[in-house]
Design brief:
globular, about 40% helix, alpha/beta
């Protein structure tokens, strides 16, 4: 593959950010959110996330924790989060030989297992031991945590102490507001329906472990960087509200915002391919779709319809598949993998 120059990389990086923040859901908040992020965290965010990941995952067999899972009615998890986590996990395994552990609440393991199978990796439920590579198998571990505060903190402390992760990532995971409670984007309370994984992020940062967050509504773990700007365009994030608003307080070392968090994770995967010059770290369009379908088959519900439909925030699986076809094609052309006479200054392509 012909090595692209810096201007090509910059253009493609900007296009990836534009793709990640298209207002596919029609909620009207992602544009202002991206603008607010650029003021505090300059530069292309998806490529920056890929560089942040590359810097963190040095050495052999680095271990990554990815926390996800957002409850809807009755505490049932939504499809947004597990799918992006599984697809990013596959990319980290391919690109860095990483050992990946997906962390979620007890009872939600099946949704993550479906997402992993669709993404092309084998889910293995953790027994609490140090995650090891399995010969001739591309696997991701699933670690469940109880909602009981003491039990949750004990598991978090054990993972950090015994597993020594290099990177902790949050993808569509509830974040605690100023009053220590959790809320959906519309202000509904979900306190008591999720384990306290803010604690895992806080302890990771205190230990010098790199963190990365992906969110789409301001109420997700790691989005504290924008907590002061969010009330300007999402009124329910205001800390002046009786319940303290929906805005998450915990920050991440690096933040990516997207119209849908799954899509933000996929665009980070694309940025990893761009950064490394390796399109094999990208999943196929069919896996983008199948991961969502199998996640919903295991009981995860769409955040828009509140039913176990193969959608993410109201956008159907077929649409996500088509969007990923477009991103892969854009990278192939932008990286010069498809012949195009217009790229040859001497006319040799004619």
């Amino acid at each position: 593959m012909k090595q692209p120059d810096s201007s090509q990389i910059d253009n493609l990086a900007k296009d990836l950010d534009a793709m990640a923040t298209m207002d596919l859901t029609g909620l009207g908040v992602i544009g202002p959110m991206r603008s607010a992020l650029y003021k505090k965290q300059p530069g292309p965010m998806c490529l920056g996330a890929a560089q942040h990941i590359q810097k963190a995952l040095t050495g052999p067999d680095p271990l990554v924790l990815i926390v996800t899972g957002f409850p809807m009615g009755g505490g049932v998890p939504e499809t947004d989060g597990p799918v992006g986590s599984a697809l990013l996990a596959r990319s980290l395994i391919k690109a860095f030989g990483a050992r990946v552990v997906l962390v979620t609440d007890t009872g939600w393991e099946g949704c993550l297992e479906g997402a992993c199978i669709g993404a092309g990796i084998t889910p293995v439920r953790s027994d609490g031991g140090i995650p090891q590579k399995v010969p001739y198998l591309r696997q991701a571990y699933i670690q469940s945590v109880e909602r009981d505060l003491q039990a949750c903190h004990a598991v978090c402390d054990g993972m950090l102490r015994d597993w020594e992760p290099k990177l902790v990532i949050s993808i569509e995971r509830p974040g605690m507001n100023p009053k220590g409670t959790y809320h959906g984007m519309n202000g509904r309370s979900i306190t008591g329906q999720v384990a306290d994984l803010d604690y895992l992020f806080l302890k990771s940062q205190q230990a010098g472990i790199a963190t990365l967050a992906v969110g789409d509504g301001g109420n997700e773990l790691g989005m504290g960087l924008l907590k002061d700007e969010l009330p300007l365009f999402i009124p329910q994030t205001s800390p002046q509200l009786e319940y303290g608003g929906t805005a998450a307080q915990q920050t991440a070392d690096y933040l990516v915002v997207a119209c849908v968090s799954n899509w933000g994770a996929s665009c980070i995967v694309a940025a990893l391919g761009l950064l490394l010059g390796r399109l094999d770290v990208l999943h196929t369009p069919q896996r983008e779709r199948r991961s969502l379908e199998l996640c919903s088959d295991r009981g995860a519900v769409d955040g828009g319809t509140l039913a176990p439909d193969p959608l993410a925030d109201g956008v159907p699986a077929a649409e996500w598949e088509g969007l990923w076809v477009g991103i892969r094609g854009m990278l192939e052309r932008g990286l010069g993998l498809n012949p195009d006479w217009r790229r040859e200054s001497d006319g040799s392509g004619l």
